[in-house]
Design brief:
binds adenosine-5'-diphosphate, two-stranded antiparallel sheet, globular, 11 helices, binds magnesium ion, about 260 residues, Rossmann fold, five-stranded parallel β-sheet, alpha/beta
């Protein structure tokens, strides 16, 4: 039995991979491959939020504001593109009668894009402005708020966030969903690598309170089943935790690492 844990994290411009396994032999055979491929993933992935904010401010915590009532829930729905965030977040917002915020729509409505990154088919977002806007939107409503976006964990004030759901989907199914959506081959590959390397989960764990990060494997589940699972966690009937999804281990067991993580 192979016990694999993968941590991918940013440090400056480099993405570092640390991989632990009980078996040294398996570790040595796999690590160079992952590290090499991961460099490509970091270079191209659109999951890394580009920002104009000062690097020293990235992990800055907001002081708690005594005027902010803490009984309102602020629920982030994050995950790799095509995992099903929007489908879930909209259903959840309707169910909770909550305010729904989609970060892509907010960027357009509030002019929060600084520039377009044509090569990576994405826009560079003004992270500081977006955080201020989110704080305003969250505090001015009496309702719960559901925030939908793959970088929600990076831009929502930590002191206001109550739950972070990181949607996961198996590489095979995610590829199928992205093909159905007509993603370009480059974007599909970049997103697949990001899902396999836990990019959204790692960002959530880095930027938010770890105990509030709930991983959710959506593979082969209907939108209704996923909603029910989220509600069970929100009701406190199911624990919120992360770290159990291991696509890399799955691909390794299936002998498909090279198929998914292309050099
Ligand atoms: N649980 C699910 N089962 C099957 N298809 C789904 C499920 N959730 C979403 N989809 C479909 O997958 C695609 C991506 O879903 P979407 O919610 O837009 O993902 P995201 O917002 O993460 O990019 C859509 O075509 C959607 O209809
Ligand atoms: Mg979406």
């Amino acid at each position: 039995m192979v016990n694999l844990t993968l941590f991918a994290f940013h440090e400056g411009t480099a993405l570092n991979i640390i991989k632990h396994t009980k078996h040294q032999t398996e570790r040595t055979s796999i690590t160079p491959e992952i590290t090499k491929n991961n460099k490509n993933a970091q270079k191209r992935t659109n999951l890394f939020l580009l920002t104009n904010s000062h690097p020293n401010r990235q992990n800055q915590k907001y002081p708690p504001n005594p005027k902010e009532p803490m009984n309102k829930r602020v629920i982030l729905i994050t995950g790799t593109p095509a995992t099903g965030k929007t489908t879930l977040a909209k259903k959840l917002a309707v169910h909770l009668n909550a305010q729904y915020i989609n970060l892509t729509e907010l960027t357009e409505q509030e002019n929060l894009a600084l520039e377009e990154d044509k090569e990576r088919e994405t826009v560079v977002v003004d992270e500081a402005k977006m955080r201020r806007k989110l704080r305003t939107l969250i505090t001015k409503t009496q309702k719960d708020t559901v925030i939908d976006g793959h970088y929600a964990a990076a831009v929502t004030p930590t002191t206001l966030t109550t739950h972070v759901f990181v949607l996961r989907r198996s590489p095979a199914q995610l590829r199928q969903f992205m093909q159905q959506r007509g993603y370009s081959q480059a974007k599909l590959q970049e997103n697949l690598e990001a899902e396999i390397l836990d990019v959204c989960l790692v960002e959530a764990l880095q930027k938010q309170d770890k105990t509030r990060v709930c991983e959710l494997d959506t593979t082969n589940k209907t939108p209704e089943e996923i909603l029910r699972e989220v509600l069970t966690v929100l009701n406190g009937k199911k624990p919120c935790f992360s770290g159990f999804v291991d696509w890399l281990g799955l691909l390794e067991r299936e002998g498909k690492i090279d198929e998914y993580l292309k050099p």
